[in-house]
Specification:
mainly beta; 166 residues; Lipoxygenase-1; 13 strands; four-stranded antiparallel sheet
């Protein structure tokens, strides 16, 4: 007999795993997928015109897999602005140690004018595993050009530059 399982997601800050029950049809009574929770800090450089009003796409690449996230920007609480650090929490399936990240950003509008003036200066991205407190630093320190649309993303890959084991 198949059973629909309702979504349940808990964000745990100090425990070693984040359990997530996925919605789907299964022949079993319960299926649990163990996830790893990360804090993601995205640091925009403190340079003239470094910020962007674009939405950001982030791919965490690890030894065994990769996972993509979409962080939307809004005019009410702008993210990715000059000298600003934006913090998010995400859960991934177990993937092993992060080895690189890929970033892309694109405007909500897709006019040529929006694309041409929407470069963003990314300083670095820091991933912190909430279970182990290990930190993974991805130093970029360069301009990232905007993609024309979310259908055609131009990703910039940034390799792991430093790890802190706590």
């Amino acid at each position: 007999m198949q059973m629909r399982i309702k979504t349940l997601m808990c964000h745990l800050h100090s425990l070693s795993i984040c359990s997530q029950i996925m919605p789907s049809y299964f022949s079993l009574n319960l299926l649990v997928c163990v996830c790893v929770a990360y804090e993601v800090k995205i640091v925009t450089a403190d340079k003239k015109s470094a910020g962007t009003s674009n939405s950001l796409y982030l791919v965490i690449v690890a030894q065994d897999a990769s996972k993509t996230y979409h962080f939307k920007n809004s005019s009410r609480a702008p993210k990715f602005q000059r000298g600003q650090t934006d913090t998010f929490q995400v859960a991934t399936p177990p993937m092993g140690t992060p080895t690189s990240v890929k970033v892309a950003h694109c405007p909500r509008k897709t006019t040529r004018e929006d694309v041409s003036k929407s470069s963003w200066h990314l300083f670095q991205i820091v991933l912190t595993c909430l279970a182990s407190r290990n930190k993974y630093y991805f130093s970029c320190r360069k301009w990232v050009e905007s993609s024309q649309s979310s259908d055609h993303l131009n990703f910039t890959e940034i390799s792991l530059s430093k790890t802190e084991h706590l």
